[in-house]
Structures are given as structure tokens and as C-alpha cells.
Design brief:
This protein is mainly α. The chain has helices at 37-47, 49-53, 67-77, and strands spanning 19-20, 27-28.
């Protein structure tokens, strides 16, 4: 997810808005699914703020500064789990 945010054309759907296949148990992005606000906020920081500000997007204050920051935080949180 961190590195995908570096490309302004990538998307990552919010887990809270995914649809579920009851038979298989899989999730998928449906017509009502939204893009993850945290992912958009990270894209905002990685790809230049004016790209997103023109559309009126307001990023979350609780987001990583860039993909390297996110990857380092993940590694720190999961240290020793192998």
C-alpha cells in the first residue's frame, strides 16, 4: 500500500466499504465501495498537495508523511515477528 500511493493513478478501496461474497467469503470492490481515506492522504503527501487540493480533498492529520515513513513504522511495529 505504501509504495502504491506513490502513483497518483492507483487506488486502494476502504475495507469498511467492500462487498462480501457469502458463498466464497471473498471481498471485492462494488459500486458503492469508496477509496480508503488513509490511502488518499498518503497519496496527497507523496504526489504533491496541489494535485488533490484542487478537488477539495482534506487529508487526515493521522497519516504517514511518505511511503518510506509508513514502511519504517510497519517494520518497527512487527519487529521480532517472523
Amino acid at each position: 500500500m505504501a509504495y502504491a500511493a506513490e502513483n497518483p493513478y492507483n487506488t486502494f478501496h476502504c475495507h469498511k466499504t467492500l462487498e462480501y461474497d457469502d458463498e466464497e467469503g471473498d471481498t471485492y470492490a462494488g459500486t458503492e465501495s469508496k477509496v480508503c481515506a488513509g490511502f488518499l492522504s498518503l497519496q496527497h503527501n507523496c504526489n504533491g498537495k496541489t494535485y488533490y487540493d484542487e478537488d477539495g480533498f482534506k487529508p487526515s492529520a493521522l497519516v504517514y508523511e511518505d511511503s518510506w515513513d509508513m514502511a519504517a513504522a510497519y517494520e518497527e511495529q512487527n519487529k521480532g515477528e517472523r
